[in-house]
Amino acid sequence: DIQMTQSPSSLSASIGDTVTITCRASQYINIYVAWYQHKPGQVPKPLIYAASTLQSGVPSRFSGSASGPDFTLTISNLQPEDVATYYCQKCNSYPLTFGGGTKVEIK
Amino acid sequence: QVQVVQSGSELKKPGASVRVSCKASGYTFTSYAINWVRQAPGQGLEWMGWINTNTGNPTYAQGFTGRFVFSLDTSVNTAYLQINSLQTEDTALYYCARGKLDLDYWGQGTLVAVSS
Q1: Residue B33 and residue B97: Cα distance in Å, rounded?
Q2: Do B103 and A89 touch (CB under 8 A)?
Q3: Which of A73, A67, A94 is nearest to A6 (CA)?
Q4: Which of A32, A93, A100 is facing B44, going by the closest CB pair?
């Protein structure tokens, strides 16, 4: 099965910073990656699908990109409400493997 | 509007079985698969598998074969997750989520706690 290696596992940044989270696929998966935001006690929220398409209602400070096997979630102008764990997921075919998650905290 | 509503928390003893329901509304139930996702305490999201809502055919991820059973009742737009022979390691939050591949609507999660 295709593995999704996500890094870093955690990060701490200041309000207003730009943070970058990366997932690397172990095999070719085209652009089929989704990103989710998961806050404690809440339901995972879809952010991005097809590597770079924002789900409806997601703030434009979130963006996604793809380059070969590497997929990136960028949060610009980090806000307090962005504190969460972020997950990538391969979506080209089953199984829909998640990355290990990145916990984002505010310094 | 699309809604996915799961059944409430469960406390079970080891060896028992549990069934979690996932009721969908606001769309044509058979147009989207239902996926199941587990989050064990302190761990990340783990995809358990999916069920084809047209055929009822389930597919299980590695590690979720044998004791885990996905099923449907399309007459009430509901999917079910049954876990048999519960073990303490099954204690987790279980989510169902609609999706053809990316998961766009999630249930609120069902906590299954297994303790003697």
Answers
A1: 8
A2: yes
A3: A73
A4: A100
d(CA A92, CA A96): 8
Tokens of A6: 């996500």
- A68-86 pLDDT, tens digit per residue, is 999 999 999 999 999 999 9
User: pLDDT grade, residue B100 (50/70/90)?
Assistant: confident
Residue of chain B whose alpha carbon sits nearest to that of A55: B104
- A57's CB contacts (< 8 A; 6+ apart) are none
8 Å CB contact between A88 and A4: yes
How distant is the Cα of A4 from the closest Cα of chain B, in angstroms? 12
Chain A residues whose beta carbon lies within 8 Å of the beta carbon of residue B62 = 1, 95
> Cα–Cα distance between A33 and B27 in angstroms, integer?
24
Between CA A97 and CA B84 the distance in angstroms is 24
* pLDDT single digits (tens) A31-59: 999 999 999 999 999 999 999 999 999 99
Nearest by CB: B106 against A44, A93, A97? A44
